[in-house]
Amino acid sequence: MIKKEMIAMLLAGGQGSRLGVLTSKVAKPAVAFGGKYRIIDFPLSNCINSGVDTVGVLTQYQPLRLNSHIGIGIPWDLDRNVGGVSVLPPYERSKGSDWYSGTANAIFQNLDYMESYNPDYVLILSGDHIYKMDYEVLLDYHKAHNADVTIAAMPVPMEEASRFGIVVTDDDKRIIDFQEKPAVPKSNLASMGIYIFSWKALKESLLALKDQPGCDFGKHIIPYCFDKGERIFAFEFNGYWKDVGTLSSYWEANMELIDIIPVFNLYEAFWRIYTKSDILPPQYIAPGSVVERCILGEGTDVYGTAINSVIGCGVTIEEGAEVVDSIIMQNSVIKKGTKLNKAIVAENVVIGENCVIGTGEFAPSTLSTKVYASDLATIGENTVIPDGVVVGRNTAIMGVTTPEDYPNGILASGDSIIKAGDVE
């Protein structure tokens, strides 16, 4: 029988609805990040860098791009005969089919997959965080404390603590209280949604709560283990970790990559971030163009100006175009004379000539104040914007738009144009 000391289960089925039009056609873990990566590359790279060579990736929402990106795991050295990477979508059983209805329910539905490796430990990961962590150190900590469950946690500012699951520990770092998004937090140590379970404790709790609707680790499994008196410890992490779940945090995390000394270094030789790379020609920066403090993906042609921006692969910035403080994802085209300021442009977008994107004052969103709450102009993939239009701040555009969609050639701050499908 196959025997693996620790396997990883990577939860990558979420829609990421707070990213608005960026995730209307693609799962959040497959959203581009840092020019040439996708968000899921970070936990996958952490796995192989930590010696974890068996990873189940649980997919559900819009999985097509995620599946083709992961493939058989070659970029991460996870194309193994035994173990490697397996994509695990929900499937039909003899008793009917069930969508994954919560993080723990998704893991429960894959008990057979986990059983097949007879693991001692199971590492539960989220597919939508940007960080580097050695899971081997986490496992050593779990063993040293003879723990049933170890929760990776990090200190957050006290005023932000109510956004997280909060753990309270004793002097030995054993968890003595657990609060899920408390109004009055008892500590500032926030759960990162990264867990190691001893196999026996995980299996027992999943089976015990299998009928719990929307069974979730933070809301159900951890409190259940706590009430049973299991040994639950907090592993304090003090490195860089970013939940890029909102448009502003996604934009900030990208912008942090282009600081002179970045807080998060993508280029450390000893902890590489791996990704599926297409074979592309090098970047081309034309005579007379201006590029300052940018990440430029391969195959990108700059004839205009790019300042303080993250530009993906295969992008074209035409003459006279200016891109400032923006994120442009792969294969998008910014045409002549167009000016972008604080914009997020998804993949395969064409922005016409002489447009102004991201101008004027902030205004509350008429689409969703929960999703669109910053001064960013957000443009969904495959969008076409006609020549000569002016787009304000805190705006969203999705689909093939025409001049008639812009009254007097303007999309005012806070407004949106959604042409393709239903987007919240």
Structural class: alpha/beta
Determine the fraction of residues in helical runs and give it as a percent range: 10-25%
Shape: globular
* Strand ordering within the main sheet: 5-4-1-8-13-10-14
Strand content: 25-35%
Mean pLDDT: 89
Question: What do these coordinates show?
Answer:
The protein is α/β, with parallel strands linked by helices and 424 residues long. Helix content is 16%, strand content 29%. It is built from 8 helices and 35 strands. The strands form 8 sheets. It has a 7-stranded mixed β-sheet, with helices on both faces. A hairpin with a 3-residue loop joins strand 2 and strand 3 (37-38).
Q: What is this structure's SSE topology?
A:
Blueprint: E1 6-11, E2 32-33, E3 37-38, H1 41-49, E4 54-58, H2 64-70, E5 84-88, E6 92-93, E7 96-97, H3 103-108, H4 111-115, E8 121-126, E9 129-131, H5 135-144, E10 149-155, E11 165-169, E12 175-180, E13 189-198, H6 199-208, H7 217-227, E14 232-236, E15 241-243, H8 247-256, E16 284-285, E17 290-292, E18 295-296, E19 301-302, E20 305-307, E21 310-311, E22 316-317, E23 322-324, E24 327-328, E25 333-334, E26 339-341, E27 343-345, E28 350-351, E29 356-359, E30 377-379, E31 384-385, E32 390-392, E33 395-398, E34 410-411, E35 416-418
Parallel strand pairs: 1-4, 1-8, 4-5, 10-14, 16-19, 17-20, 18-21, 19-22, 20-23, 21-24, 22-25, 23-26, 24-27, 25-28, 26-29, 27-30, 28-31, 29-32, 30-33, 32-34, 33-35
Antiparallel strand pairs: 2-3, 6-7, 8-13, 9-15, 10-13, 11-12
